[in-house]
Design brief:
5 helices, single chain, Arc Repressor Mutant, subunit A, mainly alpha
C-alpha cells in the first residue's frame, strides 16, 4: 500500500480543548478529509460523516477494541466498500493494525482493525518515520538535480568561454541533416 500523507505548515492546536474540533482540523490537515469534503450522503456535518465517525468514535475513543468489518458496517450504517475505502486510507497512514479475531463456529478467523498499539500518539511514530524516509528521498533527488544542473551550466560555460591561448572561441558545428547537403554548384 502506498504511503500518502498531506504535510502542511500548521499551528499546533494545543490551546483547543475540544476533541471534535481538534480531530476535524487534524483530519483535514493530513488529507484524510479532503478540503471541501462533501460526504455525499444525507448528513448535515462532517461530524456525522462515515470517515469522521470511523476515526473518532470507533478508533480514537475505543483504541483497545479490534473492529471487524461487519461491526463497522453496522455501527457506521454504511456499506462494506465504504468502510474499506476509509479503512484503507487510515491504513495508508500506517495508523491501524490488523489483528486476528476469534473464529466463530460458522467461519474462519476474521480480521479486525484497531489503532496501532492502542494509542494514536504511538501509532503516529510510524507516519513520522514514513515522512522522514520520503523527505530523505526528496533530498537525494534535489541534490542529484542540482548536480545535473551544475554540470549543464559548466558544459555551456566551457562551450562559450574563450580558449586560454587567446584565440576566438570555436563554435561547435551543428550536424546538418543529409537531405540538405548540396554537392557542387
Amino acid at each position: 500500500m502506498t504511503f500518502e500523507l498531506t504535510v502542511v505548515s500548521n499551528t499546533p492546536m494545543t490551546a483547543v480543548n475540544d476533541l471534535e474540533t481538534v480531530s476535524i482540523a487534524f483530519l483535514y490537515n493530513v488529507g484524510y478529509l479532503p478540503k471541501g469534503y462533501d460526504p455525499k450522503t444525507n448528513v448535515e456535518s462532517v461530524k456525522q460523516s462515515v470517515p469522521y465517525k470511523l476515526f473518532l468514535n470507533c478508533f480514537l475513543k475505543r483504541p483497545e477494541k479490534a473492529w471487524s468489518i461487519e461491526e463497522l458496517v453496522t455501527v457506521l450504517r454504511t456499506s462494506r466498500p465504504t468502510v474499506y475505502r476509509h479503512l484503507n486510507k487510515l491504513k495508508s497512514y500506517d495508523l491501524l493494525e490488523e489483528v486476528s479475531l476469534k473464529a466463530t463456529e460458522d467461519s474462519n478467523t476474521k480480521k479486525g482493525y484497531r489503532i496501532r498499539y492502542g494509542n494514536l500518539a504511538k501509532a503516529w511514530n510510524f507516519s513520522e518515520a514514513h515522512v522522514k524516509v520520503a523527505m530523505e528521498g526528496y533530498r537525494k533527488t534535489v541534490d542529484h538535480l542540482q548536480e545535473l544542473a551544475n554540470k549543464e551550466i559548466a558544459r555551456q560555460t566551457a562551450a562559450t568561454a574563450p580558449p586560454e591561448n587567446g584565440e576566438a572561441p570555436r563554435e561547435e558545428a551543428e550536424p546538418v541533416p543529409m537531405a540538405r547537403v548540396r554537392r557542387g554548384a
